[in-house]
């Protein structure tokens, strides 16, 4: 039987991230002085377990990664509207959602479904599940989000 972790975005994203992680404080890696190619992470925020929960790329795109507390599996990836800097990305509580993807796993922890930003559900065969790409916020080959 599959476990579904879909949730509506009723709470502000910052509150949802706290509810889904066991972090009492968010650690960071990287600084605005990092020199990385355009599009790669400029800064990442991590929970107490060291898992990425928020990522800012060199293009100023900010995504939040919501995880199931016990397993650490990604249950939702949210792209926020706007262009951010490391400073403005610290607490983007007023940012609207640009896109969101939800993920469903089977009892063994294999990714079996993804609900994409259009609301379409994509089912995967556990033995042939694509890898979830945290930078793109999807496991769907060729799926991209516009600006």
Provide an overview of this structure.
The protein has one helix at 13-20; strands at residues 3-4, 27-29, 41-46, 52-57, 62-67, 74-80, 97-105, 111-115, 121-123. With 147 residues, it is mostly beta strands. It has one domain. The radius of gyration is 15 Å and the shape is globular. The model is unreliable at 1-37 (pLDDT under 50).
Question: How do the strands and helices of this protein lay out in sequence?
Answer:
Layout: E1 3-4, H1 13-20, E2 27-29, E3 41-46, E4 52-57, E5 62-67, E6 74-80, E7 97-105, E8 111-115, E9 121-123
Antiparallel strand pairs: 1-7, 2-3, 3-4, 4-5, 5-6, 6-7, 7-8, 8-9
How many helical stretches? Answer: 1
Mean pLDDT: 75
Span from first to last CA?
A: 37 Å
Main beta-sheet annotation: 9 strands, antiparallel
Please give the domain count. Answer: 1
Question: Outline of this structure?
Answer:
The protein is mainly β.
Features of the shown structure:
1 helix; single chain; globular; 9-stranded antiparallel sheet; 147 residues; mainly beta
């Amino acid at each position: 039987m599959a476990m579904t972790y879909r949730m509506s975005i009723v709470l502000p994203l910052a509150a949802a991230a706290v509810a889904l992680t066991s972090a009492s404080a968010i650690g960071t890696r990287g600084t605005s002085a990092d020199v990385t190619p355009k599009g790669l992470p400029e800064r990442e925020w991590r929970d107490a377990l060291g898992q990425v929960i928020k990522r800012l790329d060199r293009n100023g795109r900010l995504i939040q990664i919501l995880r199931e507390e016990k397993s650490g599996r990604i249950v939702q990836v949210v792209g926020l509207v706007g262009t951010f800097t490391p400073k403005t990305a610290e607490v983007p509580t007023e940012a609207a959602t640009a896109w969101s993807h939800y993920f469903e796993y089977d009892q063994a922890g294999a990714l079996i479904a993804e609900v994409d930003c259009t609301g379409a559900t994509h089912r995967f065969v556990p033995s042939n599940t694509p890898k979830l790409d945290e930078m793109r916020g999807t496991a769907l080959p060729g799926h991209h989000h516009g600006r």
